[in-house]
Structures are given as C-alpha cells and as structure tokens.
Specification:
The chain has 369 residues and is an alpha+beta fold. It has 9 helices and 20 strands. A 6-stranded mixed β-sheet has the order 6-7-8-3-9-10, with helices on both faces. Strands 13-12-11-14-20 form a 5-stranded antiparallel β-sheet. Strand 17 (312-319) and strand 18 (322-329) form a beta hairpin. Helix 2 (92-102) crosses helix 3 (107-121) and helix 2 runs parallel beside helix 4 (136-148). The chain is globular, with a radius of gyration of 25 Å. The protein starts with a strand and ends in a 15-residue tail after the last strand.
Amino acid sequence: MSGVKLEKVIKRYGNVQVVHGIDLEVEEKEFVVLVGPSGCGKSTTLRMIAGLEEISDGTVTIDDKVVNETAPKDRDIAMVFQNYALYPHLNVEENIAFGLKIRKVGKEDIKKQVDEVAGILGLEDYLERRPADLSGGQRQRVAMGRAIVRHPKVFLFDEPLSNLDAKLRTQMRAEIKRLHKRLGVTSIYVTHDQVEAMTLADRIVVMRDGVIDQVGSPMELFNNPINTFVAGFIGSPPMNQIDAVVEVKNDKLFANIVGHSIELPPLRELTTKDDGRKVVLGIRPEHVLVTPEDGAAAIPVELDLVETLGSEALLHCQVAGNHFVVKAETHGKTDHLEQVSTLYFRSNMLMVFDHETGMAFDHPSSTQV
C-alpha cells in the first residue's frame, strides 16, 4: 500500500515550533491537497514527507515503512517544484531522462519510457528543445514528465502552478487531474489557492499556524466548514460572516443584526438559555436572495458596486458595517442589480458560529457545548 501517514509530526527551527504535532493519513491512489495561507506550515510538511526537511518529532510512514531516517532518494517519491528545476543545458528528452540515467537504466529502456511519458504529456514535438525555448506550461509539463518517468509510489507537488498565468493555470489543473486519473499514483499537492484545492482534491487539508483545522472532501468543507477560518478560506467568493446577537422570541431563536431579526435554523447547541449570546452568522454569496421570498428575512444594505462577470454578477455591499458579497444571476442585464437596497436571508441557508471560539454550532466534528 503506497499510502502516506503522518503521526504527531513536529517541526522546530531552534526554539520556534512551526508544525505542531499533525496527524494525517493519505490513502493509496488518493489526491490530497494541503491548503492554507502563507506561513501555515504546508510546504514544510511536504518537505518533511520528501525528506528535504528533518522531522523534529513524530513519524512519517510511506508504503508502511517509517522513513524518518531514510534519504530522499530512497523514499521512492517524485517531487514537482514551483520553479520547475530543469537543467537549462539539456533538452526536453535529456531532462526527462536524467533521473533514469543516474540510476543506470539501459538506453533502450530510457528511450521507451521517455517516449511514453512525452506521449502522455503531449511533448513529442518538443523533445529536442531546451527549457529556454519552451512556454511556462510546457516547462511545467517537462518537470512533471521527469517525475512520472520514475514511476514513484508518491507524487509531491509544491505550488507547481504559481508561476503560470491564469489561463495556463486552468489548463494545467485539468492536465494534472487527468494525469492522476490515468496513473493513479498517491499524490500530495501544496497550494495557497483554494480554487486549485477545490478542483483537484479528493480530500482537502486546511492548515493554519502549523496545525490542521479541517480535513474533508471539497464539498464537505464547502458545505460544513468547522470554523470561521475554513468558512472564510474555502469558496470563491468566501462565505460572508456577520456579527449578531441571539435573541429569544416566543421560544424561538433569532439573530439580531443591528435591530433586524433573522430566525436561526434549529441547533442542538443553542437554546433559549443563550439569549444575548454573541454569534457569527455565515452565509454563502450564492445563497443570498435579491428578491423577496416567503419566509425570508429582509435586511437593508448599502450597495457599493456591482462587479459584472457575464451570466453572474458580484454585489459588494455593507451590512451592519460588514463587507458583504452577493452572487446573483444577471439574466443578461444588471440594471435591476444596481438598484438593490435590501437582501433576503433564508434560515436554512445560514451557518452559526460561536463569536469567541469561531467554531460552528452543530458541526459533525464539533465538541462544542
């Protein structure tokens, strides 16, 4: 089983601890994405798996073998870096074949394997070119080819698309996804871009300040963020968050936003005893209504601008002093959106978070009481 397992992994630089005892298990053939803001420890974690960073404490297991003391070259992993790390004096064929030559593979086998990989990646017509003669996307493919040709047990990707423009990033995301489906190799991918995480991952690992906040499928994290950090990180645009106060009316719970009430969804962890408790309301931009609907609470807003995207538009508003974004359909025009002064909220579309801890109420993983 070519899975990867991290148990209580810690990384220290002197007296400074940057990764705080994380546990993670990546199944064989799974594509897992580590995502989080700069400095959260995701690249350091990846480099510890690769053997490029020493582990301060804990264990890393690859293919059921503890590899803490195993040299990088003996871990049977292949890594694709942000800067491609191609040899400028070698052509495409030689760059892809380099690792095979180091391992003393025969010339015929090298030729066969390079041709096979070039076919997979659409590089057949570029084998004689040097990296300087290639586009950014082509160079990234060569870097991937050099990793693929080794037939490793695990692929490690360290922000491989960061240097590409938006169009190329979209193309290469699809390329990597197709490649993973075709090869079925266990893959761990690091990015700060939540769109990459959502589109590529079987499971996403959201990291913050050297710890794991939440692990789950893209839609699990989108629909059920465990806290306000994950809610504000996953989704484009991210979930709106508004400060509110719980109030009780006729034994029902409402959220009061500067004098306007929204009925809360039924929650086990909030009761009538929580009258006056501070909470944070979360709602996705696409779940906010711009036209009245029976049962939906009306909240006045100040519209700042309408960002037209074509079939959709983003409305940037102020709600009780909070920046608020609404995603609405244009139906071919935006005149009606320019006049919006009230938004409508359905109770079943709301999430409720504790104001102090940021944890979601009634989350499947929550132990909050």
